[in-house]
Amino acid sequence: MKSFVCYAFNGQTVPEILQTEIQRLGGVISYDQAPDDVPVLLFKDGALSLTPGSAQGQPLVLDYQDKYSTFRQRASKDKGPLAKAIGLDKKRDLMVVDGMLGTASDSLLMLSWGVHIQAFERVTEIYLLNWYSFQNFKKYNSSLNFSIHHADIRNSNVTGDVLYLDPMYPQTRNKRLSKKEMQFFNQLAGKDQDEKEVFDWAFSQEFKRVVIKRPPKAEIYLKPTHSFESKSVRYDMYSFKPL
Ligand SMILES: C[S@@+](CC[C@H](N)C(=O)[O-])C[C@H]1O[C@@H](n2cnc3c(N)ncnc32)[C@H](O)[C@@H]1O
Q1: Nearest residue CA, atom 14 of ligand 1?
Q2: Is the CB of 134 under 6 A from ligand 1?
Q3: Which domains does the chain have, with CATH numbers?
Q4: pLDDT above 70 covers what percent of the chain?
Q5: Which of 52, 123, 165, 167 could cross-link with 192 by S-S, CB 3.0 to 4.6 Å?
């Protein structure tokens, strides 16, 4: 397990539940001043954030409740290409496995449509950022079928109707992830250079559908059953069985 450091600002006390999770993940808490040239986890005033390091911008804090409420308010009849790609029009109680959680925007969007979600994130710092927000979120949304896991999706035995993959892509690609978030993520997660191995693994599993999010002009890896597009994004959908 890769070791990492979570800094406590000005010696502030890190809640016990967070201390326990940091230790479980092989991390340590430091009361030294956090470095400012690399992104690090920082606990300050009750919030866990990822500092920008040498990139510009504010520390990144995930707020699941805020994102989810915004998506719920926006939920309209026409849910766009992602809803079509996962087959929301074909089955109501879909179980989607989000193999690449990131900042959880896509998971929370699908959750706001009533989809059940199991999500996976392999970068420990990104997972922890999600985990901390998830703890609060689940207190108020305990009836939702939503779980997050720290693992490479390929090392899980997870099953579901649809596997959803959204690999990192060089800069400027994803309009919904701001440039600020992308910079942090590129530094921490790299560019998912093994994405093709992950796609091959995905196609060998028992999912009824695999959906891969791509920039509109990205090369097609394997001819999809159908692509659902908007101006800024393309969802390549591979159908293996009816939903
Ligand atoms: C572009 S981001 C996903 C963005 C996400 N859809 C969102 O709405 O925020 C890709 C994320 O997937 C993670 N990732 C990449 N390959 C993975 C794998 N094989 N297993 C688990 N996580 C993976 C990366 O660490 C990164 O955080």
Answers
A1: 100
A2: no
A3: 4-50 (no CATH), 64-239 (3.40.50.150)
A4: 91
A5: 167
